[in-house]
Amino acid sequence: MAAKSNLLNMALSLSAVCLVCSALLGGVYAMTSGPIAEAQAAKTAASIARVLPEFSVQPELKTVEMDGVEYSYYDVPGSGIAVISSAGGFGGPLKLMVGVDDNGQIVNTVVLSHSETPGLGAKCSTDVAFIDQFKGWDPAERKLAVRKDGGDVDAITASTITSRAYTAAIASAYDVYLKVKGNE
Amino acid sequence: MSKLALITKGFLKENPTFVLVLGMCPTLATTTSAMNGLEMGLATMFVLILSNIVISLIAPVVPDKVHIPVYIVVIATFVTLLQLLMQAYVPEVYETLGLFIPLIVVNCIVLGRAEAFANKNTVGDSALDGIGIGLGFTVSLVVIGIVREILGSGSVFGWKFIPGDGILAFVMAPGAFIVLGYLMVLFNKLAKR
Q: Mean pLDDT, consecutive 10-residue segments, chain A of 184 residues?
């Protein structure tokens, strides 16, 4: 069983354990930081590839300020831009990547992160009928708002708040697109 | 206790979920599907086995008054290690389990086994105990996950065999409590025989 405690052996054993543990963690961190960065980059690249038409150039990360909020977007010359935008959903922020091509049409959208209710709002990342309705959407012609609010978006059944957030995120992404195009 | 009994006790006599009722937070929160339950169970088992081994090794030299902080540092180290490895090699799994991975540090099962078993048994036995309890925990989470996934989404391990939406309550927190309660009754009835 355990040794008898005195100040010296308590301090020594705690320091020794902490030293070994931090050395171990430092080593593992150094070993995994490369793969972690790669995994994140691969995820971003996959998202961009999903929301924009085919491209061969390297997407370039840029930021633009709009209404006091800084938005990040990936500029892909010859293809369009992929804007990262978010809106308040039912359970927390709903973060999307929205691809807008050079003609001002929405190519596709993908959910980056969300905290919506499983089985209800969480469908916003899997419900094909809901997500696909935005493909080829031209916000200049069709209103980006759910039908309940007088727009043209078919909301997910029983998840109006999530659908509203999704739509709002696309709308602000489109505003970012207009601002970026206006600046050029 | 025989070596085999060390492993099998985790399933029945000392089942962490249905008998000891430990580690309820990840049990209730991550069992929305069978796959999530399996992943959480395996993650916990990884930490449990390694921390049991290390703690049984260092227990004789750790002064009594600081043994809890020392054990927690050891456990936290393995959890952080697991977190880094998961982020690097299985980022999708890490994303689903997210917050519940760091919470393994305070999972009562891990510290409980360190206190109740690893610090007074040999390295080999402690490793077997970690495997046994870890397997028991994993199987329990998978069973809860299967029941909740069938009722809530009409599928098992993502394979959908009932069309439609399922009973939503079972995907959410109340369903977790209901399923856990009924399974506990069933388990204890069967185990008493």
A: 77 92 94 90 87 81 83 85 90 90 88 82 85 87 85 86 92 89 75
Write out chain A residues lying below 8 Å of B152, CB-based. Answer: 118-119
Q: Tokens 């069709």 correspond to what residue?
A: A142
Task: Classify A53 as helix, strand or coil.
Answer: coil
Whether B67 contacts chain A with CB within 8 A: yes
Label residues A158-171 b or e (16+ Cβ within 10 Å = b): ebbbbbbbbbbbbb
3-state class percentages of chain A: helix first, strand second, coil last, to nearest 5: 45, 25, 30
What's the domain count of chain B?
Answer: 1
Please state the rounded mean pLDDT for residues B50-71: 91
Calculated CA dihedral for residues A30, A34, A36, A37, nearest 10 degrees: 130
- In B, minimum Cα distance to A115 occurs at B96
Q: Does B141 have pLDDT greater than 90?
A: yes
A3 in contact with B, Cβ within 8 Å? yes
The two structure tokens encoding residue A9: 């052996």
